[in-house]
Prior knowledge:
Elements: E1 2-6, E2 9-12, H1 15-24, H2 30-48, H3 50-66, H4 79-91, H5 94-110, H6 119-141, H7 144-154, H8 160-167, H9 171-188
Antiparallel strand pairs: 1-2
Amino acid sequence: MVTVTQPGATWVDTDADLIEQAKRRPEIFTAIFDRHYRNIYAYVARRLGPDLAEDVASETFLAAFDRRHSFDAARGEARPWLYGIASNLVARHVRAESRRYKALARAGRQDTGEVDGHADAVAVRLDAAAVRGRLADALRRLPEPVRAVLLLVAWAGLNQQEAAEALGIPAGTARSRLHRARQEMRRALGAETEVDE
């Protein structure tokens, strides 16, 4: 939604402005949906697969709409809030997510690629499949609270503070969970040496 204040001067309302307006005029909440749905959908699809993504992403916005009166406008941006709602909904589907990672891990071990006369391309595909399988297996083994922080940072593009806000946990807890997740991912890749963060 664009608001004109004077000739030649325009600005785009912040998420907080839109949610505040949607408290009185619910139809304005569609701007929040339009602004963030694609990213929420993509995040959920990466975690649960496309079969559940549309339902969970839609449920995220229904929950957000229902909770719009409790949104803290001081947060400014709705992105961490929406990812928090989505993460909570994904947690309800943890078994499906775990099965997905297990299948990816199996596929990574079994994927031999197709020989098409390009030995280098085949080797790259094989290496990528092996790494994908190890990473998927490591993701599956992570406890959900640790996995949630990692994927909010890695896939949703949130920083540690935003991930903490999204999950309703202290920043220090998010930092330690992210550190633990990174260590596990390094182990999965065979990088046993400690890397500075």
